[in-house]
């Protein structure tokens, strides 16, 4: 397999170039290993997996495992060699296309441990793990030779085929998921962005349609909440209940467009906490950005450097801080997308230390490169780096974020892959605020993290699996179906080659964009074989993807990973009033001109509407509430003051007495 | 209030007046000696023996002696009796930087001489301090006397309030002008001036609160700074739909404030979240004062402090956080200072002296007396923590936010805590509480005490060294401090008019023995002699050095430059009509900061342009025209690498 390394660099073909050539002769050599099988088939002892003995505390996976087994092959007993064989025979009768695959001699790396075992997959599921497996004849066998077998990566943040002012990003679901698979990512989670004012459900259906047609790997969807009212609330509810969406993103940036107010955030957070969703937040202070952008343009700075100058790191940190505060008030799990700066990451790690349920997602770009390129003399190159929040000009940022990722303060990694061609970026050639935002990264994500974090010794391979795959699966409530190599899990696997070195360049990448922000970077570590849905999609540098093969994976609400703590806290957080006697002293006269803060969003906010406005006080000494109150909607009932506690518990007390 | 002098009586009964001895003997030689007049402060600071003297004095419970002029000096006393000449002998002068022993002579409300063996005219009134500490009078940076609230007025007007301040050793107050939204700042300012001029007993100055934002406000701010001696403005991040400003507005206000050279003060609480929480709490049936603290959690305060620090950093504007009530807010300030932000934090008497556990009192009136915003933290370790930060310099100044309401006024919110008028007492107790919590416990020394109660405030608000220091030429606002006096704070004996004192029953050590304001003795032997209307408005100039030296240096550095690039000559994508309107500032129409006709020159504005066009031309910029022949020749900007 070593010879493949050299081949991969051959840039002679235009398509997925670097994966193109080497393996014409390879298929034949595979067959030889059939011999190994026969022996195995005869051995009847120590069959399947003593997997449970190996890994402690994954009870969840065991229960989950039974589901698919029952569906596909009821005969698979946990230890039953005979059953195994019969089952094998039965299934052999089926179409040859049912992908049976055996990986021999690999070192399985999960987020908790690594161990040597063989893996047998069938119909896109992992059926057996262990030594000396009994498998049906004729299965394709991959000899791993002790290389690591890890769960396929989950890219938790992509924007494929995102519409932007009448055009779309250059990487559609086919191109994007192909790039993902080439990099060892076997599942992507894309963001549905409904235009403000349009239906979430329609946008969701639209995205589903695009992705079902084209995606080459499994996918799931986040839905962005770009405006907030009663109908959006209902749609969110039905998306959670019926459509398999459990994460929703809100924007604190993009003033007058996507941005929501603090009160709206509070309402959304409260609502999602109730429904078991995950709140994702694009954290930047949009108001200040708008001011800064105006200032930059006024100063005559129109190039991409204006983008980073108008979005200083502090604004990101500020918004993260605010989001953490609101989440903590509403007892809602928070997920911060695109952690781009040290200070934002610091806020997250501080919040975690204080016990907040918050997850941070650095992206490939922030882990791999920095924002010094915004000052590039090459406009197109500088513009290629434009994303929000911007890459930090501080060159120590990537290292710092990798460290926090290794220490567990940041939990997951995405790519925020959202590529535009130079022509599209050039919409903003005279005004940086018009440059469409987004960088590439879906293909480079796994290798880059391996290179920056594992080869440098910051994290071990288990942590690598956790942050590239397992944690994401847990947050989305897909664990252990995804994010783990276990019996019953999906057969999304990678054989990882720790020694391969390759240089990233736009000439060989799978994205359609002309620029790669990691251009020229040499990375150690790459996927050797990628198996998605039990099929080999990358082998010997050759990528074989099927557009439309990707399935939508529904996510259910209340993921344990986030909600166990939240639920426990909810039980504790009951507030109690102090029972007091009636106040019987004199009361001053007052006017309502400076009233008790009726919230502005009362008219539009959905959570408020059915609830009585308790801020409205009907208190008046004149006996005519309308006279002293502000103009109020007629339907609001005025609560008669002073009637609440007639016979207080503990008897009436004179509450004006000293102490 | 008739009980005005009561607690002083108790003090004097504690140490009865009779053991007063005549110390004339000490005086006489001084009058004769003609050398070493006005003070060499540094060399004067040799203290060992004296300190020991002082301590023995105290053990004898010697009283300060005030001596009227004797007939002998009649000759020199040609002036009007009323020109207050005052000599304080044998005091240990405590400034924020050092302590030394010297005599102080003042005349016409100004300190004229400091030193040993001063030559003074005859007929001066002399106070013998016997080595006690003489400090600059306290400056209470935050009061709200006579504040209107929904047709009610805070229980202490300028007379009552300043009287209470003087009784506690505070000789200057800075009150907040709170214009109702829609009312002009200037007319509100005039209103407050009128109230204060007629009633205040000590010098005062005014902060202006910005409760709304439009072009007119900006002009008024300029006028106030230039012609009316105001250099600080408060913005609210709380009180949704009443006083609250949006982040964008705050940004603009801060930019204006920086250009004017004033201080941006901020009431830091996230009003949006507070409003939501209030609604939620009321929904749960919690209507008592405990709902106030439950709906204003500490985090919400810290969040707003963090946000205002961010905005201040962006605008390069000095920030002053009023009412630091919680540990986490104080932490945010301390962190921001470590990062280099010019930010000041003001804990108040209440947050330094008590905590929020009282909100759960069964006595409604008592619980309501603690209602203020941000609320007192229910965490009982908060006062200690804030005192520590005050001692180490992370927090710099102390106010009282004195704005008490009597129980009948509070009862407006008897069925709904959101209606309870907010404000606590504290102007009278401020100095003693800090002395007791910080100096007695050894957290800070007396110099730092002077710094946090007076000097820092004077520096920040550009009153230094007229106020906040004992030096020749400074105002004769002095306090002779007795570190040993003990008293129990009680509503029965305080000078405020309200029925509750939030420090009720707190025993504090340390209090003023003599208070001198404008060169006149206001408090002596427990007797308070105040004159209504004697307080003067003290005008303050913009650009205080203490604050703006750093700001100025930074604004010189902060110039940003664009990257000169060639013209983009590649293909450009068609754009559909629905633009992604991220940029245009919504408040641009109303925002004064963005108007081209700025009277103050915007130094951030760069005139750099190769085409010869200047920014000041005010012509709509056409970007494609800017760089026709870039330096270094035209580059093909689409080429790789």
Describe this protein's structure.
The complex is a heterodimer of chains A (659) and B (641). Chain A is of the alpha/beta class. Chain A has helices at residues 3-8, 26-31, 34-42, 51-54, 59-72, 81-92, 173-182, 200-214, 230-242, 262-275, 286-298, 305-309, 313-330, 342-353, 364-368, 379-384, 397-407, 422-425, 445-454, 461-475, 560-572, 625-628; strands at 100-109, 114-122, 125-130, 140-143, 148-151, 153-158, 163-164, 167-168, 185-192, 218-225, 247-251, 278-282, 334-339, 358-362, 493-503, 522-532, 535-539, 542-543. In chain A, 33% of the residues lie in helices and 17% in strands. In chain A, helix 10 crosses helix 13 (313-330) and helix 13 packs parallel to helix 14 (342-353). The longest helix of chain A has 18 residues, at 313-330. Chain A is globular and about 90 Å long. Chain B is built from 18 helices and 19 strands. Chain B has a domain at 135-553: Metal-dependent hydrolases (TIM Barrel, Alpha-Beta Barrel). Chain B is globular. Chain B has helices spanning 6-14, 24-32, 48-59, 158-167, 185-199, 215-227, 247-260, 271-283, 290-295, 298-315, 327-338, 349-353, 364-369, 382-392, 407-410, 430-439, 446-460, 545-557, and strands at 65-67, 85-94, 99-107, 110-115, 125-128, 133-136, 138-143, 148-149, 152-153, 170-177, 203-210, 232-236, 263-267, 319-324, 343-347, 478-488, 507-517, 520-524, 527-528. At the A-B interface, helix 10, helix 11, helix 12, helix 13 and helix 16 of A face helix 7, helix 8, helix 9, helix 10 and helix 13 of B.
């Amino acid at each position: 397999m070593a010879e493949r390394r050299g081949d991969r660099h051959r840039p002679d073909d235009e398509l997925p170039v670097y994966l193109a050539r080497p393996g014409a002769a390879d298929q034949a050599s595979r067959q030889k290993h059939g011999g190994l099988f026969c022996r195995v088939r005869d051995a009847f002892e120590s069959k399947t997996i003593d997997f449970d003995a190996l890994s402690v505390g994954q009870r969840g996976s065991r229960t989950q495992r039974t589901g698919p087994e029952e569906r596909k092959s009821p005969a698979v007993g946990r230890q039953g060699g005979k059953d195994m064989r019969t089952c094998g025979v039965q299934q052999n009768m089926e179409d040859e296309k049912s992908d049976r695959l055996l990986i021999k001699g690999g070192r399985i790396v999960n987020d908790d441990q690594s161990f040597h075992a063989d893996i047998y997959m069938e119909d896109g599921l992992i059926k057996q793990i262990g030594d000396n497996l009994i498998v049906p004849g004729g299965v394709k066998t991959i000899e791993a030779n002790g290389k690591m077998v890890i769960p396929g990566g989950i890219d938790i943040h992509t924007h494929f085929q995102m519409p932007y002012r009448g055009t779309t990003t250059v990487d559609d679901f086919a191109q994007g998921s192909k790039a993902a698979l080439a990099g060892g990512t076997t599942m992507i989670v894309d963001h549905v962005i409904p235009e403000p004012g349009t239906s979430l459900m329609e946008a969701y259906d639209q995205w589903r349609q695009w992705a079902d047609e084209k995606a080459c790997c499994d996918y799931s969807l986040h839905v962005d909440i770009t405006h907030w009212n009663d109908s959006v609330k209902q749609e969110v509810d039905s998306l959670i209940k019926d459509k398999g969406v459990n994460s929703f993103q809100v924007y604190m940036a993009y003033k007058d467009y996507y941005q929501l107010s603090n009160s709206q955030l509070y309402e959304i957070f409260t609502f999602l906490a109730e429904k078991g969703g995950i709140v994702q937040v694009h954290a930047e202070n949009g108001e200040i950005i708008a001011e800064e952008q105006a200032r930059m343009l006024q100063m005559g700075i129109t190039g991409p450097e204006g983008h980073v100058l108008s979005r200083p790191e502090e604004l990101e940190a500020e918004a993260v801080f605010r989001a953490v505060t609101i989440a903590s008030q509403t007892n809602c799990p928070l997920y911060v997308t695109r952690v781009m700066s040290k200070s934002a990451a610091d806020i997250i790690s501080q919040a975690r230390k204080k016990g907040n349920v918050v997850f941070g997602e650095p992206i490939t770009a922030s882990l791999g490169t920095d924002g010094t390129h915004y000052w590039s003399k090459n406009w197109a190159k500088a513009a290629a780096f434009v994303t929000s929040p911007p890459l930090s000009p501080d060159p120590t940022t990537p290292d710092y974020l990798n460290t926090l990722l290794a220490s567990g303060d940041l939990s997951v990694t995405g790519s925020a892959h959202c590529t535009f061609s130079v022509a599209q970026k050039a919409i903003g050639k005279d005004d940086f605020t018009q440059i469409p935002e987004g960088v590439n990264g879906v293909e480079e994500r796994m290798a880059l993290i391996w290179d920056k974090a594992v080869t440098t010794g910051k994290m071990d391979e288990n942590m690598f699996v956790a942050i590239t795959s397992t944690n994401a699966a847990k947050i989305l409530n897909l664990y252990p179906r995804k994010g783990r190599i276990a019996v019953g899990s999906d057969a999304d696997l990678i054989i990882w080659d720790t020694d391969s070195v390759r240089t990233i360049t736009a000439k060989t990448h799978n994205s359609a964009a002309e620029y790669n922000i990691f251009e020229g970077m040499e990375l150690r570590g790459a996927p050797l074989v990628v198996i998605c849905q039990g099929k080999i999609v990358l082998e010997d540098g050759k990528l074989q993807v099927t557009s439309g093969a990707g399935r939508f994976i529904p996510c259910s609400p209340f993921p344990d990973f986030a909600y166990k703590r939240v639920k426990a806290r909810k039980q504790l957080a009951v507030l109690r009033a102090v029972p007091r006697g009636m106040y019987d002293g004199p009361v001053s006269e007052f006017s309502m001109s400076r009233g008790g803060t009726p919230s502005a969003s009362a008219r539009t906010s959905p959570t408020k509407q059915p609830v009585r406005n308790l801020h409205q006080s009907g208190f008046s000494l004149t006996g005519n509430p309308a006279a002293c109150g502000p103009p109020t909607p007629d339907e609001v009932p005025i609560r008669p003051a002073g009637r609440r506690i007639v016979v207080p518990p503990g008897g009436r007390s004179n509450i004006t007495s000293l102490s | 209030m008739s009980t005005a002098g009561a607690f002083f009586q108790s003090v004097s009964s504690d140490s009865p007046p009779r053991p007063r001895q005549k110390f004339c003997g000490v005086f006489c030689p001084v009058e004769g000696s003609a050398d070493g007049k006005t003070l060499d402060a540094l060399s004067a600071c040799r203290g060992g023996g004296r300190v020991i003297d002082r301590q023995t004095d105290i053990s004898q419970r010697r009283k300060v002696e005030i001596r009227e002029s004797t007939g002998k000096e009649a000759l020199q006393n040609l002036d009007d009796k009323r020109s207050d000449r005052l000599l304080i002998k044998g005091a240990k002068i405590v400034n924020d930087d050092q302590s030394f022993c010297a005599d102080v002579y003042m005349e016409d409300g100004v300190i004229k001489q400091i030193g040993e063996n001063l030559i003074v005219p005859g007929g001066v009134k002399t106070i013998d301090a016997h080595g006690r500490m003489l400090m600059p009078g306290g400056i209470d940076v935050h009061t709200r006397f006579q504040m209107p609230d929904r047709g009610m007025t805070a229980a202490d007007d300028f007379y009552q309030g300043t009287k209470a301040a003087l009784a506690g050793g505070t000789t200057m107050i800075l009150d907040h002008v709170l214009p109702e939204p829609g009312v002009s700042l200037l007319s509100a300012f005039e209103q407050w001036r009128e109230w204060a001029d007629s009633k205040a007993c000590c010098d005062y100055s005014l902060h202006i609160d910005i409760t709304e934002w439009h072009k007119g406000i900006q002009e008024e701010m300029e006028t106030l700074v230039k012609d009316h001696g105001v250099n600080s403005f408060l913005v609210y991040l709380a009180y949704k739909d009443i006083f609250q400003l949006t982040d964008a507005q705050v940004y603009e206000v801060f930019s204006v404030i920086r250009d004017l050279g004033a201080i941006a003060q901020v009431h830091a609480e996230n009003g949006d979240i507070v409003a939501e929480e209030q609604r939620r709490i009321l929904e749960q049936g919690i209507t008592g004062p405990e709902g106030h603290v439950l709906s204003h959690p500490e985090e919400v305060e810290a969040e707003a402090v963090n946000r205002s620090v961010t905005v201040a950093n962006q605008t390069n504007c000095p920030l002053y956080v009023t009412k630091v009530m919680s540990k986490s807010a104080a932490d945010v300030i301390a962190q921001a200072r470590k990062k280099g932000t010019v930010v000041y934090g003001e804990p108040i008497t209440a947050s330094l002296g008590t905590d929020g556990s009282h909100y759960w009192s069964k006595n409604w009136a008592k619980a309501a007396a603690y209602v203020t915003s941000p609320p007192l933290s229910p965490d009982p370790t908060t006062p200690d923590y804030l005192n520590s930060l005050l001692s180490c310099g992370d927090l710099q100044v102390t106010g009282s936010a004195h704005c008490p309401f009597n129980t009948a006024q509070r009862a407006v919110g008897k069925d709904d805590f959101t209606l309870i008028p907010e404000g606590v007492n504290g102007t009278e107790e401020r100095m003693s509480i800090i002395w007791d919590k910080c100096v007695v416990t050894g957290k800070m020394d007396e110099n730092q005490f002077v710094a946090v109660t007076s000097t820092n405030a004077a520096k920040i608000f550009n009153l230094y060294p007229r106020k906040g220091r004992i030096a020749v030429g400074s105002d004769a606002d002095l306090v002779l401090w007795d570190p040993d006096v003990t008293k129990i704070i009680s509503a029965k004996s305080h000078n405020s008019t309200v029925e509750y004192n939030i420090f009720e029953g707190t025993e504090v050590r340390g209090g003023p023995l003599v208070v001198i304001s404008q060169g006149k003795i206001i408090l002596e032997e427990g007797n308070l002699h105040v004159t209504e209307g004697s307080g003067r408005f003290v005008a303050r100039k913009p650009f205080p050095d203490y604050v703006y030296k750093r700001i100025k240096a930074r604004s010189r550095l902060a110039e940003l430059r664009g990257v000169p690039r060639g013209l983009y000559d590649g293909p450009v994508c068609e754009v559909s009509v629905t633009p992604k309107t991220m940029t245009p500032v919504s408040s641009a129409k109303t925002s004064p900061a963005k108007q081209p006709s700025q009277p103050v020159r915007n130094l951030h504005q760069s005139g750099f342009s190769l085409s010869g066009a200047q920014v000041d031309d005010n012509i709509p910029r056409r970007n494609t025209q800017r760089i026709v022949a870039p330096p270094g020749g035209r580059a093909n900007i689409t080429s790789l690498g």
